[in-house]
Design brief:
Shape: elongated
Distance between the termini: 25 Å
Number of helices: 12
Cofactor: [4Fe-4S] cluster
Number of domains: 2
Strand content: under 5%
CATH superfamily of the largest domain: Hypothetical protein, domain 2
Number of strands: 0
Pfam family, one: HhH-GPD
Catalytic activity: 2'-deoxyribonucleotide-(2'-deoxyribose 5'-phosphate)-2'-deoxyribonucleotide-DNA = a 3'-end 2'-deoxyribonucleotide-(2,3-dehydro-2,3-deoxyribose 5'-phosphate)-DNA + a 5'-end 5'-phospho-2'-deoxyribonucleoside-DNA + H(+)
Helix content: 55-70%
Largest sheet: none
CATH architecture of the largest domain: Orthogonal Bundle
EC number: 4.2.99.18
CATH class of the largest domain: Mainly Alpha
Radius of gyration: 19 Å
Order of helices and strands: HHHHHHHHHHHH
GO molecular function, one term: class I DNA-(apurinic or apyrimidinic site) endonuclease activity
CATH topology of the largest domain: Endonuclease III, domain 1
Structural class: mainly alpha
Length: 211
DNA sequence: AAAACGGGGGC
DNA sequence: GCCCCAGTTTT
């Protein structure tokens, strides 16, 4: 039987094969966890998050902390000083401007320190259920491999995927692409043999035909 | 447009 | 030992 290779169908297959469930929806914790995850592997992110929230319970607690103390706490999990400073800064800014509550408007999120397009969109999606594409390295790499986009700029990928994928897929595709990217569609030496969508992948088909 | 942040894991 | 990682900020 033939596989439907329309992007929406391929995306649905990936989401089904690599589900990502979020056990944390609290906006502030999602925001902090997402900042912790920037350029950092999931295992380190999880450990840093446990360490952080075992000592500091919320925005006010972190806002009153010394950045240096927070840094020493999360450093064993591969976090750097700049990131600890960012988390203290964003907590203070939230307290000052929004009574410690994370806003749900994209433009307000983007004004916060340490929050860029990926982080803002993940918070919108995970915490507020607002459809938002978070184009990280996994989404960017895999979209290019599949042949959905042909660009080096993540902003271009975000714009093209917005047109390519149904709105209901914008949220779930990010988390599932991350799982997919970690388990199979790795940056180097992807495990194509076990891939559920290899028959729809430009990169796989090209490598297969090159023998 | 490119550098800097940064410890830990894969190879 | 070298390179990369759920990016963002600064130069």
């Amino acid at each position: 039987m033939k596989i439907d290779c329309k992007p929406n169908e391929v995306a649905r297959r990936i989401i089904q094969a690599f589900p990502r469930e979020y056990n944390e929806r609290d906006p502030f914790r999602v925001l902090v966890n997402t900042i912790l995850s920037q350029r950092t592997r999931d295992e380190n992110t999880d450990e840093a998050s446990r360490r952080l929230f075992s000592k500091y319970k919320g925005p006010a607690s972190i806002a009153n902390a010394r950045a240096e103390d927070l840094y020493e706490l999360v450093r064993p999990a591969g976090m750097y000083r700049q990131k600890a400073e960012r988390i203290v800064s964003v907590a203070r800014e939230l307290l000052k401007r929004y009574q410690g509550k994370v806003p749900s408007e994209i433009h307000k999120l983007l004004e916060l320190p340490g929050v860029g397009r990926k982080t803002a969109n993940i918070v919108l999606n995970v915490s507020f259920g607002i459809p938002a594409l978070a184009v990280d390295t996994h989404v960017h790499r895999i979209s290019n491999r599949l042949g959905w986009v042909k660009t080096k700029m993540p902003e271009d990928t975000e714009r093209e995927l917005t047109n390519l994928l149904e709105e209901e897929l914008w949220g779930p595709i990010n988390g599932s692409m991350v799982e997919f990217g970690r388990k199979l569609c790795k940056p180097r030496k992807p495990l194509c043999d076990n891939c559920p969508v290899k028959q729809c992948c430009d990169s796989y088909l090209a490598s297969k035909n090159s023998y």
